[in-house]
């Protein structure tokens, strides 16, 4: 198994880790009720998806 002869610099380590940040969720407004919801998911407040009622609305 290969073992590094010299340690990697902090710059090299940080460049490798530059893509590890967690992205924030991007909520969109529901076209039916206007509440914030995640895209491509059923609205939790009114229960619609793509203009159709697919789930029971939670109170």
From TrEMBL:
A Pfam family assignment: Ribosomal_L32p
GO cellular component entries: large ribosomal subunit
Species name: Desulfoferula mesophila
GO biological process, one term: translation
Name of this chain's protein: Large ribosomal subunit protein bL32
Keywords in alphabetical order: Ribonucleoprotein, Ribosomal protein
Molecular functions (GO terms): structural constituent of ribosome
Domain of life: Bacteria
UniProt gene name: rpmF
